[in-house]
Amino acid sequence: MNRGHFITLEGGEGTGKSTLLEALRDKLESTGRSVVVTREPGGTELAETIRNLVLHPPEDQVWSSMAEALLMNAARTDHLEKKIRPALSSGSWVLCDRFADSTRVYQSVQNGVSVEVLKMLERSVLGDTSPDLTLVLDAPVEQAAHRRAERGGLADAFELRDKAFHEAVRQAFVDVARGDPDRCVLLDASRSAKEVSAQAWKAIENRLLAAKQGATS
Ligand SMILES: Nc1ncnc2c1ncn2[C@@H]1O[C@H](COP(=O)(O)OP(=O)(O)OP(=O)(O)O)[C@@H](O)[C@H]1O
Ligand SMILES: [Mg+2]
User: Fold this and answer.
1) What pLDDT does residue 161 have?
2) How far is CA 189 from CA 24, 87, 103, 171, 178, in A?
3) Rounded Cα–Cα distance for residues 217 and 212 (Å)
4) Atom 12 of ligand 1 has which residue's CA nearest to it?
5) For residues 35 and 208, what is the distance between their CA atoms, to the nearest angstrom?
6) How does pLDDT run across 126-139, given as a tens digit for each residue?
7) For ligand 1, what atom is nearest to the CA of residue 97?
8) What is the topology classification, in CATH, of domain 6-216?
9) The pTM is what?
10) What is the pLDDT of residues 38-67, one digit of tens each?
11) 192 within ligand 1 shell (Cβ under 6 A)
12) Quick one: angle between helices 115-126 and 65-79, nearest 10?
């Protein structure tokens, strides 16, 4: 059995990750592929418990960046062991809404945890299970905030931060994508949902499907 493909979607709040994920799921399933859709923090029962602790701490309580980094990695370990690796081994495509790059970004911006410590944790937790492709959605902060406001719902601990924080997050995601061009593709998420999904599908075709055909021919 061939290992499946592991795709992660990254970017700031409201850039359209979850919307794109559903479009890609539909497209992959309509072409007969088995798809497992999941998210971080979360994806397993224990990891979802951690998600709730991190995103919705008790009122007036704030986690330090180091505590967040450790909690995110604890959740990720469980998620990889129980869901992501088994799905890839069974040949499924795994689409994950946020993954390790979000920890690199959110837990390091504005004087958070050092990049060295975050990379060390990431290496230990991921082992050899890195994403085959990471789609990084980039859109102006005001536009993303407007989309979130239109969507409604309760804001979490990260969404409530100020504009400078969201600008720093946006820049940090762009830096992640530029720093790892073999794995990452930066998408212009200011475009319509249809156009963003076309950009993403092109990346999947070029980087995963074309490579696979080449390998088997
Ligand atoms: N390309 C787009 N153009 C216009 N609206 C969009 C686009 N993509 C998503 N939206 C809308 O913007 C809102 C936010 O999108 P979505 O929930 O997919 O973002 P997200 O990145 O998953 O956000 P979060 O980080 O909060 O989970 C939704 O109402 C969605 O319908
Ligand atoms: Mg989402």
Assistant:
1) 84
2) 15, 28, 21, 14, 16
3) 9
4) 147
5) 15
6) 999 999 999 999 99
7) 22
8) Rossmann fold (3.40.50)
9) 0.95
10) 999 999 999 999 999 999 999 999 999 999
11) yes
12) 20
